[in-house]
Write a structure and sequence with these properties.
This protein is an alpha/beta fold and about 500 residues long. The protein folds into three domains: about 100 residues, Urease, subunit C, domain 1 (Roll), CATH 2.30.40.10; about 270 residues, Metal-dependent hydrolases (TIM Barrel, Alpha-Beta Barrel), CATH 3.20.20.140; about 100 residues, Diaminopimelate Epimerase, Chain A, domain 1 (Roll), CATH 3.10.310. Helix content is about 30%, strand content about 25%. It has 16 helices and 21 strands. The strands form three sheets. Strands 1, 2, 3, 4, 5, 19, 20 and 21 form an eight-stranded mixed beta sheet that branches. Helix 8 links the parallel strand 13 and strand 14. The radius of gyration is 23 Å and the shape is globular. This is Amidohydrolase. InterPro entries: Amidohydro_3 (IPR013108), Metal-dep_hydrolase_composite (IPR011059), Metal_Hydrolase (IPR032466).
Length: about 500
Amino acid sequence: MSLTLLGARPFGGDPVDIVIRDGLIAEIVPAGSLSGEGTVEGETVDVSGRWIGPGMWDSHVHFTQHVIRRSRVDLTGTTSAADVLATARRALDSGHPLLNGMLMGYGFRDGLWEEPASLAAIEAAIPEVPVILVSGDLHCGWMNRAAAARLGVDLDETGLLREGPWIEVHHSMDQTDALPLSAYREAADAAASRGVVGVVEFESADNVTEWRARVDGGVTSLRVEGAVWPDRLEKVIADGWRTGDPIDDQGLVRFGRLKVVVDGSLNTRTAWCWDPYPGMDPSHPLACGMESVPISELRRLLERARDAGIDAAVHAIGDRANSEVLDTFAELGMRGVIEHAQLVREDDFARFAELGLVASVQPEHAMDDRDVADHHWAGRTDRAFAFGSMHRAGAELRLGSDAPVAPLDPWISIGAATARSRGEREAWHPEQQVPLDVALAASTRSTLAVGQPADLVITGRDPYASDRDELRDMPVAATLLGGRFTWRTI
């Protein structure tokens, strides 16, 4: 199988013709060099001078959560507890479908609410059906007694369930097998329409079995690296899986890394920090956030994975969590990935490069969380979401969305990383901007060179000639995965 792209402009340079054979880039020659009779093989597509580059990767998604979000009440625009409950109430009254008999919502952020969530308020607003409202960062759920009884959990006066207990029940109620394959195909195709060729899947699920079945069922628009969580680690070791192993017959899905969550999140004030959160009694056990997985257990898990040929990706948001995780990787002599790295001590930036660790970051989170960071990390935000500091210290960056926490759209991530602003707001800590070439490289896994996979994106504008909003809304003319179109308008 062969395909020739005529008149493409790699990174906005001189136009070239690109020959693709068997899923790989076979030739890149000056435009017009292949115009002689009989010199062009297979299908030809006139790219008409459009910009072309390597296909985009999202290095952190929760794909099932991303799919499910579409069926939940949208709470992302709410600004208070009362606003959340009024939105959920209106949805119920207007006939919003129940999921397994429950009203489900997603997207509230309570980090700056003047009036906190309470069990009494949610009971008063929606007493007649079980209701579960999921926070925008996925780290807590607000529910009424009927929902708690359904899930078999106890609630305190807040009605909130946070971190470990919440994550456990959240995963248990997703019922992934009840989602039709068409929903996954639609979500994968939508990602391809934004130039995405691959995602790193961090869903807490049997990703080996589930993604093999999805590919067999026609979800073939993306490459996938599927992680494993600690509760399934022994099973995958017993089954002989190692990082990088192909999972499906088409070669689209590979076994990924062990995912360990060491602390919580900023919005729930559970990110593990060196300094107390404002208003917290320093002697309170949660004054500085929480250690979700003890460091001794993290060390055991990483050693077990390393010895079985499984690499690691560790969630660390607070600066204490990042310091402890860096120490653990150093002690074990392991390379790996630190997910999020939202608050980092100045002395720790250089350690990412020294230890060969990747910083997998989500730039749009900085835009979502700038106000809550200014409040809860007051005086420390010069080193919050500090992508510029990481880059200058030599760390390898990878960009992602944490979908559904932010949109599964690499151009939004690139725009946030390079501009540190959106809408009418000024740039937040502009010293932490990264150059466009760095953001693009952090969003790809291949290069535009002979012998590389023909995973490509063709855009309607030159990113280097685009302003902030044009980057975020970049038109994608075509996406190719292994030389086949997964999206095209040309």
